[in-house]
Amino acid sequence: MLGPQNVRVDKRSRIEHTYGKSYRDLIRARAGIFPAPPDGVVYPIDEGQVAAILSWATERDVAVIPFGGGSSTLGDVEPQPGERLVLSLDTSLLNRVVALDPISHTARIQAGARGPELEEALNARGFTLGHFPHSFEFSTLGGWIATRSAGQASTGYGRIAEMTREVRLVSPVGLVETQSLAATMSSPELLCVLAGSEGAYGVITEATMAIHPQPSLRDYRGFLFHQMKDGVAALRTLVQQGPRPTVANLSDAAETASLAMLSSDHPTLRAIGDRMLEMYLTWKEYDLANGSCFLIVGYDGEPDQVAKQWQQATAICRDHEGLPLGRTPGTAWKRDRFTYPYLRDTLIGMGVMVDTIETVTSWSNLLPLYKEVTSVLRTVIPATGGGTGYVKSQVYHARPSDACLSMTFIGRQVPGEEIEQWWAVRRAAMEVIAGAGGTLSYPLSAEQDRAKWLAREVGPIGVTILRALKQALDPAGIMNPGVLPPV
Ligand SMILES: Cc1cc2nc3c(=O)[nH]c(=O)nc-3n(C[C@H](O)[C@H](O)[C@H](O)COP(=O)(O)OP(=O)(O)OC[C@H]3O[C@@H](n4cnc5c(N)ncnc54)[C@H](O)[C@@H]3O)c2cc1C
Q1: Ligand 1 in contact with 65 (CB < 6 A)?
Q2: pLDDT the model gives residue 227
Q3: pLDDT above 90 covers what percent of the chain?
Q4: What per-residue confidence (pLDDT) applies to 392?
Q5: Measured between alpha carbons, how far is 398 from 238 in angstroms, rounded to an integer?
Q6: How far is the CA of 361 from the centre of ligand 1 (A)?
Q7: What pLDDT does residue 264 have?
């Protein structure tokens, strides 16, 4: 059906498609533990081949797992253990920008296109998608839609679901095409149920995305606030009153202290710069190591418009006693934004437990939830043998009503029990978040009982609706079994 070159059953291909990139995945991969690799990997080159694979798999009761960049941290590209044959369907050959409408500012893009590929093609025509998750280099458009991804510039350009105008999804029962102009007022929008479906309903082959003219200027600057609450108030004012930033990223005191350690690569410059900065900040009553919080704000656009936005934004930050630090921190942030998250991978190899847990919550709930989760994490890390531990947080993906709180916990690994220890810490934080009404992403594995967490969030009727959708689109249950409640 696909030709021998696009079907692989060799050990390396199967191993490379067994896991995503969660802490649990990296621990097992490094220990050489691959309990249930897929039996084969297929690389369709067009939508017709995707449909043919799904028909073939339905007839033979073979499970199919869509695989984009494999950067997921939720365990949702991993085959379930068992007797059933499993195919990983890799979308990397579906990677083209098919059409661009410069008048309507939309582009039709194939689902397997990775961040750099699609940005390069759009930039060449003077546009950008504006979606830059930390995993930008390795993740795909289909993966972003299937996991409701949010990027670093989501405050300005929106989260992926807000940019998606139309989706083509090949399900085992046929092609689902959502309407681009969702103006019908008499039915729920189908697109909403396909975004976030994690491959459980079918394979997204293509999407029509809202795009934006390439900005001629990306002006990113840093501010320092005395306390977290001042930074949160400034950020909330910026997104509620405007000018709404393209990028806004607030670090708590612990994250600010760790960023300060990365300030300059050059030892002499760093020594002089650090000393002068310290004296100046002490004079202004800011303390990089203890309490002050760092905010990155960025505006994309044309120079005149950006200059006006900066005038207003600076005034808002100053109202909350924000100290302008200029463009240097903004330039450093831009430089490191795709590499900094991979410090995690290096640390794991040095015996460090490190993971990030994210929740979206309302502005009114943000600081109480932040304090509660931080305090629980600080207690539970030592209780699991992780030593004193370190917890640092950021606030981003801000909208007028809510924002995302991203909390990183760090401790010493307990050798031989790394996964149990990590899950004990993560579960404790998830309990607090679920109890306080924050949204969650749930890791997928048998012992972590995703169905229970999902039922807690969507309720019994919500679970019935999800089951009905699964029954309608995938009655034989071949699509990524386990990620959503089975039929
Ligand atoms: C270092 C690091 C940083 C990260 N930063 C961010 C971030 O800033 N923002 C963010 O949102 N996420 C982030 N993530 C998580 C991850 O990158 C996202 O979830 C991303 O959207 C996954 O895309 P992918 O192409 O790698 O999908 P995969 O990992 O391949 O798949 C993820 C899920 O989507 C399904 N899927 C993939 N392609 C399709 C398709 N074409 N049709 C149907 N289903 C499909 C898979 O079956 C699976 O269930 C990060 C991960 C890492 C490791």
Answers
A1: yes
A2: 94
A3: 78
A4: 96
A5: 9
A6: 22
A7: 52
pTM of the predicted structure, to 2 decimals = 0.94
Write out residues in the chain with pLDDT < 70, as ranges.
180-186, 260-274, 446-447, 486-487
Q: How far is the CA of 73 from the centre of ligand 1 (A)?
A: 7
Query: What pLDDT, on a 0 to 100 scale, did the predictor assign at position 179?
Result: 76
d(CA 132, ligand 1 centre) in Å: 12
Q: Encode pLDDT of 410-448 as tens digits.
A: 999 999 999 999 999 999 999 999 888 888 877 777 667
Nearest atom in ligand 1 to 71's CA: 26
Mutate to test the pocket of ligand 1, among 134, 191, 203 (most ligand atoms within 8 A of CB): 134
Cβ–ligand 1 contact at 38 (below 6 Å): no
**What is the best residue among 139, 360, 396, 484 to mutate for testing ligand 1's pocket, by most ligand atoms within 8 Å of CB?**
139
Rounded to the nearest whole angstrom, what is the distance from the C-alpha of residue 86 to the centroid of ligand 1? 20
- For residue 283, what pLDDT is reported? 78
Q: Which atom of ligand 1 lies closest to the CA of 69?
A: 26
**Nearest atom within ligand 1 for CA of residue 22:** 53
State whether the beta carbon of 73 lies less than 6 angstroms from ligand 1. yes
Task: Determine the pLDDT at residue 97.
Answer: 98
Residue 165: alpha-carbon gap to chain centroid = 20
In this prediction, residue 180 carries a pLDDT of 67
- Per-residue model confidence (pLDDT) at position 355: 96
